[in-house]
Amino acid sequence: MSFDAFKAIKSGDVLQLRHYLDSGFDPDYPDPSHRSGASLLIYAAHVGNTAIARELISHGASLNARDGDGWTALNMAVHTGHVGFVELLLNAGASLDGQAFTGSIEDFLNWTLLYGTGTKEAMKKMLPIIEFARSKQDECPTKSESSE
After folding, report:
1. Residue 147 lies in a domain
2. Range of the domain at 59
3. Is 58 domain-assigned?
4. Rounded distance, CA 47 to CA 82, Å?
5. What is the pLDDT of residues 100-125, one digit of tens each?
6. Number of domains in the chain
7. Of 6, 26, 42, 142, which has the fewest beta carbons less than 10 angstroms from its beta carbon?
8. CATH number assigned to the domain comprising residue 62
9. Reported pTM
10. Residue range 17-36, pLDDT digits in tens
11. 144 in a domain, yes or no?
12. C-alpha span between 15 and 35 (Å, rounded)
C-alpha cells in the first residue's frame, strides 16, 4: 500500500489517498524508494498539490516532519516554487523555526532560484507570505509570557 499512496499523490488522486488514510495508513509514512525517506506531505510539497496536502493534514500529517536530509514539506514547497502550498502549510501552523530561512529570507529565496526549480515570480510571491508568517510566529507569546 505504501507505493500506492505515493502514486495517488503523484497522480493527484485525493479519493484514493483518502481511502488509504481512512484505512489506517500512516500519513507520516516515509517513502521507502527514496534515499531520504520523505514523508507523504514532503512528497506532496514536491508535487505541489494543495488538495492532497489538505487531505494529509486533515488526517494528522506532521507539518514539521523532516526527511533524512533534514528537509520539511515547507522547505520542499519553497524549493519547488509552489506558492499556494507554502501558504497552506504556514496557515496550517507549519513552523519557520529550524527552517533553512531562519536567517535572511531573501538569501534563502535567492539560493532557491539558483538551485531549486521555482521561478523568480514564485519567489517574489513567497517573500511577503513568509515574512508575514514569521511576524505572526514572532508575535506569539511564550508560555511564561502568556501566564503573566
Report:
1. no
2. 2-139
3. yes
4. 8
5. 555 566 666 777 777 677 778 888 88
6. 1
7. 142
8. 1.25.40.20
9. 0.80
10. 999 999 999 999 887 777 77
11. no
12. 27
